[in-house]
């Protein structure tokens, strides 16, 4: 039996089951991580050469070898699960190109542990940038349609009961505001995790006089993690990101549930084009909200991935281990990929949903959601306490419902009768003022307190939100440009070394 291909400590070949069930599946992602591993290797070679830790001719050969591998791509590397993972397979191929002595010098002053930790941060950084970009796009769509539908009055609900009139644009402005917080959460994580673990080696640093700041700079990090144990042991930025994605998923599921309700035949407040609907195999009249169902269903999956990662990591020691740093992180990439898909579907929903303006207005006029405005009128014009006004309006609503009347059929006489019964005297309110209160359009116009649905208040909200969106988009673009510049500098430094 042949000995291990990667260790003289291990005298037996890796068991077929280990290769089949552990190492082979890990190698399936070799192509995806190939570029990140190449960048880590380039930064390490340049740093070793700059620090005088390897001879220039060795550094030049290594730099050329890594660049040549980059040119031919990951498919040129023969993947052998008996070599355990991506790094050993990469290293074996490099050694074939530049020789075992020179190729073996690449690993001076480092470990797979800090390589893997660095790759996770590089890859995680790109993932968060894409998520933030996608969120910005969804926010932009929400705000555009918030302005478009700023005066489309509809019932607002609490406890899924008609509550107060709002506008569809006001609802979308609320969606945009919540998504803005999701953007900020992910941005905060992105900024805090952009620190390099490279140079931490296994976990206890290295006796070689490496320059961690130089390799961090070459890879576009803002600095390096000072404590080498923490740098290797922790993937908290992944759990933090997954927590943010879980909050985001819970939110988009709530929005999807609103549309799910509004598009039912019974509500019929909003309609989607046929292009975003499904049908039934047996019931020809059906128009099924498949996108909304997908969004709601996938949110549970993303929350489950967070729980799985948390439970995997919680029982591990505070150091490097495969269960913490490999198994505990695998769900993040799936959660992030799924979140991007769901955000694009959410944007499709927000872009294509159209309120049935005439029906939403009629519902708001008839469903007693204007009742609070009537109570407010009694406080202002009849000098009642709000609680007294609440009791009177409640009695009026009850009377109207019992008579089969709608809210817009309430009269001054009905109000006076209820007032006489409740407080012992009529109110004699101005009939025109009563009509204005019971008119959902006028009702919304009056709600101009800060952040309210009134057009002047909503316009101010949208103006400020659009300004913040422009700022956020610009800042994320700057991040992209900074990383692109760092990547170009790394490439130039490696090419200069290879000459």
TrEMBL record:
<keyword id="KW-0963">Cytoplasm</keyword>
<dbReference type="InterPro" id="IPR008948">
    <property type="entry name" value="L-Aspartase-like"/>
</dbReference>
<dbReference type="GO" id="GO:0005829">
    <property type="term" value="C:cytosol"/>
</dbReference>
<feature type="domain" description="Argininosuccinate lyase C-terminal">
    <location>
        <begin position="368"/>
        <end position="444"/>
    </location>
</feature>
<keyword id="KW-0028">Amino-acid biosynthesis</keyword>
<dbReference type="InterPro" id="IPR000362">
    <property type="entry name" value="Fumarate_lyase_fam"/>
</dbReference>
<dbReference type="Pfam" id="PF00206">
    <property type="entry name" value="Lyase_1"/>
</dbReference>
<dbReference type="GO" id="GO:0004056">
    <property type="term" value="F:argininosuccinate lyase activity"/>
</dbReference>
<keyword id="KW-0055">Arginine biosynthesis</keyword>
<dbReference type="InterPro" id="IPR022761">
    <property type="entry name" value="Fumarate_lyase_N"/>
</dbReference>
<feature type="domain" description="Fumarate lyase N-terminal">
    <location>
        <begin position="48"/>
        <end position="304"/>
    </location>
</feature>
<dbReference type="Pfam" id="PF14698">
    <property type="entry name" value="ASL_C2"/>
</dbReference>
<comment type="similarity">
    <text>In the N-terminal section; belongs to the lyase 1 family. Argininosuccinate lyase subfamily.</text>
</comment>
<comment type="similarity">
    <text>Belongs to the lyase 1 family. Argininosuccinate lyase subfamily.</text>
</comment>
<dbReference type="InterPro" id="IPR029419">
    <property type="entry name" value="Arg_succ_lyase_C"/>
</dbReference>
<keyword id="KW-0456">Lyase</keyword>
<protein>
    <recommendedName>
        <fullName>Argininosuccinate lyase</fullName>
        <ecNumber>4.3.2.1</ecNumber>
    </recommendedName>
</protein>
<dbReference type="InterPro" id="IPR009049">
    <property type="entry name" value="Argininosuccinate_lyase"/>
</dbReference>
<dbReference type="GO" id="GO:0042450">
    <property type="term" value="P:L-arginine biosynthetic process via ornithine"/>
</dbReference>
<dbReference type="InterPro" id="IPR024083">
    <property type="entry name" value="Fumarase/histidase_N"/>
</dbReference>
<comment type="pathway">
    <text>Amino-acid biosynthesis; L-arginine biosynthesis; L-arginine from L-ornithine and carbamoyl phosphate: step 3/3.</text>
</comment>
């Amino acid at each position: 039996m042949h000995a291990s291909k990667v260790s003289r400590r291990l005298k037996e070949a890796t068991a077929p089951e280990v290769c089949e069930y552990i190492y082979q599946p890990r190698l399936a992602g070799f192509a995806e991580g190939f570029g990140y591993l190449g960048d880590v290797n380039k930064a390490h070679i340049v740093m070793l050469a700059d620090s005088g830790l390897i001879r220039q001719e060795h550094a030049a050969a290594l730099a050329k070898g890594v660049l040549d591998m980059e040119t031919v791509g990951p498919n040129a590397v023969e993947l052998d699960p008996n070599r355990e993972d991506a790094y050993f397979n990469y290293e074996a191929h490099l050694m074939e190109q530049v020789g075992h002595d020179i190729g073996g010098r690449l690993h001076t002053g480092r470990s797979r542990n800090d390589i893997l930790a660095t790759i996770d941060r590089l890859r995680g950084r790109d993932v968060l940038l894409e998520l933030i970009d996608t969120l910005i796009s969804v926010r932009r769509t929400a705000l555009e349609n918030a302005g478009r539908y700023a005066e489309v009055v509809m019932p607002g609900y609490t406890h899924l009961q008609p509550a107060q009139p709002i506008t569809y644009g006001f609802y979308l402005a609320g969606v945009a505001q919540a998504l803005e917080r999701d953007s900020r959460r992910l941005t905060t994580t992105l900024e805090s995790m952009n620190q390099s673990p490279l140079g931490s080696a296994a976990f206890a640093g290295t006796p070689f006089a490496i320059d961690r700041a130089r390799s961090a700079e070459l890879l576009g990090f803002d600095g390096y993690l000072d404590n080498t144990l923490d740098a290797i042991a922790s993937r908290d930025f992944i759990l933090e990101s997954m927590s943010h994605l879980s909050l985001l998923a819970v939110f988009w599921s709530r929005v999807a549930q609103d549309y799910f309700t509004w598009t039912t035949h019974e509500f019929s407040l909003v309609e989607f084009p046929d292009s975003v609907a499904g049908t039934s195999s047996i019931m020809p009249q059906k128009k099924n909200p498949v996108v909304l169902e997908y969004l709601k269903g996938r949110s549970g999956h993303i929350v489950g991935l967070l729980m799985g990662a948390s439970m995997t990591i919680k029982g591990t020691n505070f150091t490097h281990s495969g269960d913490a740093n490999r198994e505990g992180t695998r769900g993040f990439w799936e959660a992030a990929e799924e979140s991007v898909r769901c955000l694009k579907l959410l944007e499709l929903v927000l872009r294509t949903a159209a309120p049935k303006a005439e029906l939403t207005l009629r519902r708001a006029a008839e469903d007693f959601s204007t009742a609070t405005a009537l109570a407010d009128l009694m406080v202002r014009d009849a000098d009642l306490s709000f609680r007294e006004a609440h009791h009177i309006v409640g009695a009026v609503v009850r009377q109207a419902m019992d008579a089969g009347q709608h809210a817009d059929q309430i009269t001054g006489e009905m109000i006076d009768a209820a007032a006489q019964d409740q407080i012992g005297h009529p109110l004699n309110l101005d009939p025109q003022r009563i009509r204005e209160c019971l008119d959902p359009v006028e009702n919304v116009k009056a709600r101009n307190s800060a952040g309210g649905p009134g057009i002047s208040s909503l316009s101010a909200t949208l103006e400020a939100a659009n300004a913040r969106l422009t700022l956020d988009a610009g800042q994320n673009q700057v991040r992209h440009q900074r990383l692109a510049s760092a990547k170009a500098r790394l490439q130039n430094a490696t090419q200069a070394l290879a000459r």
